[in-house]
Amino acid sequence: xxxxxxLGAFAIGMMISGALFFLGQKxxxxxxxxxxxxxxxxxxxxxxxxxxxNHADEKHRIDPLPSAAWEKIPNAISAAGGDVTHIxxxxxxxxxxxxxxxFIDDVEFRRGEAAVHVRSASRVGHxxxxxxxxxxxxxxxxxxx
Length: 145
Description:
145 residues; single chain; alpha+beta; 8 strands; six-stranded antiparallel beta sheet; TATA-Binding Protein
């Protein structure tokens, strides 16, 4: 009886691990949404996203960065373990991968007139345990802002 319970628990654990591995692989595809109508994309209803644009609701809202941070952002991303995927005069996108299953999060920056707006979001799943908010705050601290 105990062996059957142990075997069942092992099978469930393997199924969960397999599902997480599949989602991690699925998140490898895709790209950041970019700038839409002059602003970073709104967050979905799920809690795995933060954004500093004016359209953000209270659950997803995070403060923008000061304009002076723009030039330092690529180095801060690299130092934090991310990869810059696109950069131009007013937009920068980057990715961060989770260590265990390789889940990809997109972190985007848009240089505005008075601030640098930021959006950090998971590509798949629903929750993130606050990882995206913590990442933006860690980048803010690394930038000395």
